[in-house]
Amino acid sequence: MEFFQAFANMTAASFAQHMANGISLGSLYAMIAIGYTMVYGILLMINFAHGDIVMMACYFAFFGITVFHIPWFMTFIGTIIATALLGVVIERAAYRPLRDAPKNSVLISAIGASFLLENLANYLFSGRPMRFPDIPLLSQNIAVGGGVQIQAICFVIPVITIISLVVLLHIVNHTKTGMAMRAVSKDYEIARVMGINIDNVISITFAIGSAMAAIGAIMWGIRYPGITPMLGVMPGLKCFVAAVVGGIGNIKGAVLGGFILGLGEILIVAFFPQLSGYRDAFAFIVLILILYYKPTGLLGETTTEKV
What we know:
Blueprint: H1 2-9, H2 12-43, H3 50-66, H4 72-95, H5 103-125, E1 130-131, H6 136-139, E2 141-145, E3 148-151, H7 152-174, H8 176-186, H9 188-193, H10 198-223, E4 226-227, H11 233-246, H12 251-271, H13 279-293
Antiparallel strand pairs: 1-4, 2-3
Helix pairs in contact: 2-7, 2-10, 2-11, 2-12, 3-4, 3-5, 3-10, 3-11, 4-10, 7-8, 7-10, 8-10, 11-12, 11-13, 12-13
C-alpha cells in the first residue's frame, strides 16, 4: 500500500528526476563494473583493487586541477592515462608473478593490493575528506519543468557510458587485440602455443579496465564530490555485484547489472523513504537472489574453470 500511495503522490517531474538520478548512478556502476568483468573474463580472478583504482583516479584528477592548475579537460585525459598505467603496474607487480600459482594466492595478492592503495592514499593525501573540483559546465543544474532541477552531469554520464561500451565492444569483437583477448579468455595455454603474447594481452586488458574505471571515477567525482581514501570501497563492492548480476565475464552483462542496481537503489528510496538508510543493502539482496536463482548471472554462460 505504501508503494502505491508514494507512486500516486509522485509528480511526473519528480519521477523524471528520480529516473535521471537512477540512470546516471547505474551508468557509473556499469562503467566501473566493466573493469571487473574484463579481468575476470581473461584470468577468472576478481581484481579487488579495482575500487581503489577508482579512488586513485579521483585523487589524480583532484590534484591535477587544484594543485597543478591544469585545465580540467587536459587533467581528465591525463587522469585516464595515469590510471591505465597504474592498472598495468598493479598487474605486473601483484598478479603476474603469481600467474601459475594457486587461485588462493592470487586472491590474497588482490586483497593486499587493495589495502596497499588505501593506506598509500591515506599516507600521501591524509584521511581528511576533500572536495572534487567544481566543473561549471557539468555541475550546473538544468530546469526540466515543474520546478525540478537536474544536474547536467546526469545527462552526460549515460551518453559517455554508451559511447564507451560501443568503443569497447568494437575493440573486443573487431580488432586483433580483441581477438587475442577472446582467445586468451578461452584457454591462455593454447593461445600461448598459437603465438599470442599472453603478458601483453593481460596488460592491455588491465589498462583498458583501469581506463574505464578512471572515466567512471571522474564522473563519480563530479556527481558525488567528496573524496577520501576509502571512497572506492562501497562503489567497488557494488560494481562487483553489478558484474555478477549481469554475468561476470560478459561486458554487456556488467552494463545491464549496473543499470539494475542504480535504478533499483534510487527508486527504492523514492518509493520507500523510510528505507533510505538501507539503500546499500539492496545490492547485496539482489546478489543473493541472483546467486540462488541464476548463479551465472542474467547474461552469463556456464563455464568450466581453467586449470
